[in-house]
Amino acid sequence: MSKVIGGLFSSHVPAIGNAIAKGLQQDPYWKPFFDGFDPVKEWVKQAKPDVVVVFYNDHGLNFFLDKMPTFAIGAAPEYANEDEGWGLPLFPTFQGHQDLSWHIIESVIADEFDPVTCQKMTVDHGLAMPLALAWPGVSEWPFKLVPININTVQHPLPSPKRCFDLGRAVGRALASWGGDERIMVCGTGGLSHQLDGERAGHLNPEYDRFCIDNLSRDPEALLNHSSLDIVELAGSQGVEILNWIGARGAMLGSVKELSSNYHIPISNTAAATVLLESCEMAEA
Ligand code: DHB
Ligand code: FE
Q1: Is 202's C-beta closer than 6 angstroms to any atom of ligand 1?
Q2: Domain range spanning residue 96?
Q3: pLDDT tens digits, one per residue of 147-171
Q4: Are residues 89 and 17 in contact, defined by beta-carbon separation less than 8 angstroms?
Q5: From its phi and psi, is residue 190 left (phi > 0), alpha (psi between -120 and 50) or beta?
Q6: 189 C-beta closer than 6 A to ligand 1
Q7: Atom of ligand 1 at shortest range from CA of 126
Q8: DSSP string covering 262-284
């Protein structure tokens, strides 16, 4: 039987790609952030997920302001990493898990969600950065990928509850999958940051702490704010926490927090990394 073995939740700042390329992991600016991935690197080494299901937001690479799906699920044979304009070095192409993608799509549509299905899709820093931090330096990714895109970019945004419910529906799809894969979920983006407008540079450590503290034990506490409340609290890009909320929804059973790191700032972002393990894995 396949199993959701754990979840990685992490910010996805593009500048991380240049820091990796330049080997700045021990640099005083970067070290407090990279160190947060030490337990993650150790955990993926021993837990060996075969599949990673990533909830993230596209940043204008596949979907621009003229066409913006609320939810889009990849069902492609592979996903090349592309750079939407930061001048970033690229990571290896990800292999897809098409059968599992279609199983998830069929299952969430039966559950009355209406995702766009993407048989061709590229992936930007929003997907690649946390995976490159968890599996540094690989020439081939040792897992297959299912990407799930949530619109955190163009209003109107989905509600936190809708994203959590989508995650729950994905979790049910994973529970009914007939394979024997070890599945890790991942939610990327956040925490508080705002890149544009009069409030550019806005951060909110109090809201960030609230999210980190509740993620493992009471994720539904994060549903008490609307998406517009979150924009107000966490900034116009801080609303990327919707991806964390989706991924957390996909972890149906009880979870244990294995590690948590919070560091301000990385570029313009309050950067956080949280690793959760499914309790049945801890007991096995
Ligand atoms: C930054 C953060 C992001 O989430 C992003 O998508 C782009 C840039 C930043 O802090 O620079
Ligand atoms: Fe982003």
Answers
A1: no
A2: 3-283
A3: 999 999 999 999 999 999 999 999 9
A4: yes
A5: left
A6: yes
A7: 6
A8: EEEEETTEEEEEEEEEEHHHHH-
